């Protein structure tokens, strides 16, 4: 099967390798599967774990993940783990890797939501926020968190009101709009 103009993958003893018409064998038959992926790269599998390699054979992401999804020059990496409450169910645990293969966010979050300059993360039902380098901007302690331009709509569980209440905070967690409201939605800057 062809991967680009002069490169093919081949099967030998049940494993797949990569062969270039001009360069010969790029890498020997050592993968369970090879498929074309985003950005003119290849997704490879070994022992049911996915990785990303370039057609030159350079490994971008080692085969450590159950799934890899490419979007916006980033790779979401996903592992399936047993659900903590329902052992018969699996849950996805997410991380984020750069286009160049650098680990930005370790594979330990229940969800990662890309929002311009920030990544809202969910871990054990609580929300927080990381920057593009993976540094914590907003501690993972909120019931809900959404980026609203350069501010954050957040929700906390209030002992006073006996329910979740919403407020707005900045990137240092200073309260801009007090945690009092049953819902807050951002409708834009008005410009």
Strand and helix map with partners:
Blueprint (H helix, E strand, L loop, with lengths): L1 E3 L2 E6 L2 E6 L3 E8 L1 E4 L5 E5 L2 E5 L5 E7 L1 E5 L2 E9 L7 E9 L4 E7 L1 E5 L2 E6 L2 E6 L4 E7 L1 E5 L2 E8 L4 E7 L5 E7 L10
Antiparallel strand pairs: 1-2, 2-3, 3-4, 5-6, 6-7, 7-8, 9-10, 10-11, 11-12, 13-14, 14-15, 15-16, 17-18, 18-19, 19-20
- Provide the low-confidence segments as ranges: none
Q: How many β strands by DSSP?
A: 20
Rg (CA only): 22 Å
The secondary-structure element order is EEEEEEEEEEEEEEEEEEEE
Write out the strand line-up for the largest beta sheet, numbering strands in chain order. Answer: 1-2-3-4
What would your notes on this structure say?
The protein is mainly beta and 191 residues long. 0% of the residues lie in helices and 65% in strands. It is built from no helices and 20 strands. It has strands spanning 2-4, 7-12, 15-20, 24-31, 33-36, 42-46, 49-53, 59-65, 67-71, 74-82, 90-98, 103-109, 111-115, 118-123, 126-131, 136-142, 144-148, 151-158, 163-169, 175-181. Strands 1-2-3-4 form a four-stranded antiparallel β-sheet, with no helix packed on it. It is elongated, with a radius of gyration of 22 Å. The mean pLDDT is 89.
